[in-house]
Amino acid sequence: MIDEYSDVVQPYTAQAQLLKLLTHPVRLAILNLLRDGEHCVCHLEAHLGLRQAYISQQLMVLREAGMIQDRRDGWNVFYHVTQPGVFAVLAAVRELVPQAEPAMDRPGGVDCPCPKCNSAASS
Ligand SMILES: [Zn+2]
After folding, report:
1. How far is the CA of 7 from the centre of ligand 1 (A)?
2. Which residues of the chain have pLDDT under 70?
3. How far apart are CA 114 and CA 78, in angstroms?
4. Which of 33, 97, 101, 105 has its CA 20 to 30 A from that of 44?
5. Residue 117, Cα to own-chain centre: how many angstroms?
6. Could you tell me which residues come within 8 angstroms of residue 113 by beta carbon, excluding any fewer than 6 positions away?
7. Cα 100 to middle of ligand 1, angstroms
8. pLDDT reported for residue 107
């Protein structure tokens, strides 16, 4: 049992911290949804099929870690990723663990009530 990491291992603690942030299915799903830019909580709610309270909890974890930022616009709060480098990590993980493209990645796959999807549908 060691109390302190050696100088060699010590620098990895920040990297481990980042990976720890990613070891959560819902946080991975949120970050993947934010790949194409900022989205409101209602968009995440519609596409993840989870309650807003639960999503907000995970958004708070991501925000406190400095991975995402929020922007208030009227009644809506939009979130965007502040460290786009994470998308390369997510892509690498998807390559290691392949998944079928979820419905949310297909146009018209989910009936989303958010302002962004609604303006895209009406234009
Ligand atoms: Zn939407």
Report:
1. 47
2. 1-3, 101-109, 120-123
3. 10
4. 97
5. 18
6. 42, 46
7. 21
8. 54
What is residue 116's DSSP assignment? Answer: H
How far is the centre of ligand 1, averaged over its atoms, from the C-alpha of 111 (Å)? 8
Sign of CA dihedral 73, 68, 48, 53: negative
> Residue 56: enclosing H or E segment and its boundaries?
helix 52-64
User: What is the pLDDT, as a whole number, of residue 122?
Assistant: 62
Residues 6+ apart with CB under 8 A from 27: 21, 58, 61, 62
* Dist. CA 45 → ligand 1 center (Å): 9
CA of 118 to the centre of ligand 1 (A): 7
Distance 108 CA to ligand 1 centre (A): 10
Distances (CA, A) of 34 to 9, 31, 59, 83: 32, 5, 11, 11
Cα(93) to centroid(ligand 1), Å = 25
Q: What is the pTM of this model?
A: 0.86
Confidence (pLDDT) at 99? 82
Residue-range domains of the chain with CATH:
12-98+107-122 (1.10.10.10)
